[in-house]
Known about the structure:
Elements: E1 3-4, H1 7-16, E2 23-25, E3 28-29, H2 37-54, E4 60-64, E5 67-68, H3 71-76, H4 86-96, E6 100-105, H5 115-129, E7 136-143, E8 157-165, E9 168-173, H6 175-180, E10 198-202, E11 207-210, E12 215-219, E13 225-233, H7 238-251, H8 280-290, H9 294-309, E14 330-331, E15 341-344, E16 351-356, E17 359-364, H10 368-378, E18 382-383, H11 390-398
Parallel strand pairs: 1-3
Antiparallel strand pairs: 2-11, 4-5, 4-6, 6-7, 7-13, 8-11, 8-13, 9-10, 9-12, 14-18, 15-16, 16-17
Helix pairs in contact: 1-5
Bound molecules: fe (ii) ion (FE2).
Amino acid sequence: MTTDLNSKFWSNFSKKYWEKKPLALKNIKSPVVAIGEAEIFELLILFSNKCRKMDDPAGFKFYIDGEQISKMDVLQILPISNDKNLLGYHQRMNKMFSDYCLVCDELLQVSTKYKDHILEFTNSLYQHVGFPNQFTEIGLYLGNYKKTPFGVHVDSCGVFSFPIVGQKKFRLWTTEFVNKNPKLDRAFEYSKYKKNSEIVSARVGDMTYWPSTSYHIAESDGQFSATWSLGVWIDKSFQKTFSENFEELLGQESISTINKPMTELKKMPLASGEVLDLPESYSRSIQALKNLTSTELQDHFLKCWMKHLSLEGFKKKIQTDFEKLTLKSKIKLPNLKTKIIWKNSFANKNVIYVAYQGNFLEISKTSGLFNLILDLNKGVICQISHYLKPAELNIFNKSQLRFF
Ligand SMILES: [Fe+2]
């Protein structure tokens, strides 16, 4: 039986499973499963080469018998192209280590090639459960390890797992149960509690999910396996997001003109303890806030929201090399799933806010840049001279906005 991850599935998922209970599905129909062994190996080699070049294995962790090894040692045992494929890498490692685990976070950072596949999955999820205030993290777990190197644990994220090689078995407990049996936290030995656990297992083509409240550990008989996991972090409230955005607003020059380390006061509290006044700095800042119009406030929060939304739920922007555009340049969007998002300013209808991959730009509605953006979003190959005058090109080249 195949489960199509269509909108009917996601609607049911959001009602019955999201942040409620675990799920294991056989044979899912989703572009995520099209990222196979060969694709993962290709990404791993790209990432490993980059780490060797930078002399920094950031993004990789390697555990031997449950112990994390040092950064410099990680560099020595990353995959190399001579391994030919994941199994080749495993055979090389297996000769040295009877229990190893390679973890690679943010594998997509090195290439946008398979981002579409993930996006189709995450966008459908977000459509039904909301967009993360934090982000979704993508990790790869590979090795012959018998148990997760950090024991039974809980993360602040709901996790979707997709085996790429071999099969995967996860043992889960509820938070309520672990609260009553705290010895389980970080445990490797838990036979006493097995009867209280739930098992979710998956083979290549399958998917498992557990909510952020599930304590979990992966178990294996020592066979080689490689698994993708998508962790949707739910540890940031809207309140936190809003206050961060608000802090940004307060930091703006027009609002916060008082930047002194000492607050002037007219009088210290009276002998009775009574406080006589609110210092002048407060009154002035309150007045500056009150002077903000509703549309100015909307514009500020719109900018913050667009920057966040344009990251598409990923942890950070994907780094791409960028060449300055010339009038002769011909460009197109690297993929049409990731659109350049835009919206009119609330305060000024001639101003358009534009965001792409976490970068932001304010443009005039009448500028050629707006037409360029509309055409790029349609998939048109655009010759820059058809859209931009030299001065506009200059503004664009100086901005943080990058379309490829
Ligand atoms: Fe975990």
